[in-house]
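User: Could you check the structure of this?
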Amino acid sequence: MTGAPASARGLGALFAPRGIAVVGASRKPGKLGAAMARSLEGFAARGGRLALVNDRDTGMYGSVRAAAQDGPVDLAMICVPAPACPDVLADAAAAGAGAAVICGGGFAEAGGPGVAYQRRLAETVAATGIRLLGPNTSGFLAPHTGLTASFVPGVARVRAGRVAVVAASGGVNHALAFLLAEAGHGVSLAVGLGNGVDITAPDVLDHLADDPHTGAVALHVESVADGPRLAAAVRRLAARRPVVALVVGEHDVSAFAASHTGALATSWRTTRAALAQAGAVVVSDARELVDAVGALSVTRARPAADPGVGVVTAQAGPGLLLLDDLRGRRARVPELDGATTAALATLLPPLTYQLNPVDTGRPGPELGRVLGAVAADPGVDAVAAYALHEPDAVDLVAAAREGAVPGVPLVVGLGGSGEEVAGARRSLLDAGIAVAADPHGVAAATAALLADARARHSAGTDARTDTPAGGAPGLVVEAGAAFDEDEAKGILDRLGVTTTARRVCADRAGAHAALAALGGPVAVKLLDAAVLHKTEIGGVHLGVGSPAALDAALDRLEEAGARRFLVESMAPPGVDLVLGARRDPVFGPVVLLGLGGTTAEALADVTVRTAPLAPAVAEAMPADLAGRALLDGWRGGPVLDPRELGRIAAALGDLLVAHPGLEEIEVNPLRLTHGGLVALDAVVITREADHAHPHR
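Assistant: Sure, the predicted structure tokens are below.
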């Protein structure tokens, strides 16, 4: 594959073989090898070579090498127990096979001796260069070539189409293929990765970048071994074909972390953020995955920063469901301009709603012109429509074709059941019109088109044209070093982050001198690099305004173990944020923004980006927060300057990139005040001297 990464080369032997050997083929119908041989009969019927291998059956080949003497064997389907698989894989490689699939389980996922079996497979792959799918997978299907390399009954009936599936699980791979078929979509390639000893998601994504049969890719992710490699593969593919990702693990429970950033940047949240930042459309469940990838396989909206959607409904109730769902997804539903509403007034009865959404009442012959008028509105980038199947009132397929406007995707929800409705949905898809069965599906498909348009608009924004500066020239962060709050804030000062005036005090006399110098009220804190959560042990006292109050605060701090104190001016009131950068074990440096201060973990209203990131990318992070209205002058409160936030967030990310000894830096709270952003507390965590992660 010209220009493809090395990881993608060699997959032709897997997905487009001349000959296949089924190792462990059996004459007993219930055996795995027998089911696999039956599934591959379609490949043989199209002229492919199918060789059956079983050293216990005199009517079959005794080895892959023996089979290869009579003709090409590019792919070995290995259907034998786990202990025998390493030797069979080595035999296939020696015979010249370029790829193998191991369907059975009993490897690392089972523990015990299975770990050693899987290690031997990896050693054979490394020594010979054979490409291996699995083990512990149900295989793959490539309907365009009639290749059903799977033992799952019925999967051969999935028709060829434009959606590729790349799933961590073989079972999910087949489940998605069946769901796509039920929705009227065909499949170009559907792959279950299993244990991923060799071939992983990035390999298949790179392979699909040049696949002429694929219009869009559904990606199912359970865990990630190499985050930057996966994100890079998604970025390369999304530049050419849409990618829709479903990440498992929303309700995982993270181990105790030393900071709010560490607790909140869960693997699920970080993976979703990294894939979205790379250009994927991220969805929340399998049904939305099917609706989204199905729509993107037939149409895409033009790139736009904030695309708008026009809503047309032939029944008011379903239309309200659709509108509500779209608004819940933060889709922009603009009012239509005067020219559009004037045109609609000539087409629709006067009592219908015509501003967006457009309610036609019972659909009639004018529906196509209504769709066209809405699509032509300058504020509309995509049209979402819904109608029940009423063939006596309107030919919905003809209306959709009439109303289609080049460059403005149309998503049609067609309610009904039976073969006539299924046929109409297929006709719409064949016309390049996205289809769903209900208002929720229309909303999911439309939201995917809008998200894809936004991602393509901002694709260049995330590319840093400059080398990350590290934000603090001359700063050295040694692994194993400890930073107290004053030292952490010293780093923020060098980054240009506003902090309040402060004094480090070695004793009570110094604290009293600091109060006199700063004036009241002040915050008085325990100062110890070993204590990260001071408020939890009574290590912070606020609003201290007199010597007597200071003595009372110092008494309590000493009871909590304080030997040094930090006295600093009180910040004005405002909205508290948490902003942190940490070294994720899978994706590397990431930046997290959220609402909450001391309640950050309880609220979990956060958003994540991978670093380094451009300030313009960081500026958009607040839009992801459920509480974003609090940052826009809520009830007379302060208004966030996104450029200031973007600069600080990008600088924190750059800091981690530039300093390998730094594990994490967190500003919590970062208070939004009428005068701008002010850091009230800061934590710096360095890596252990051996660069392992610190004990949490």
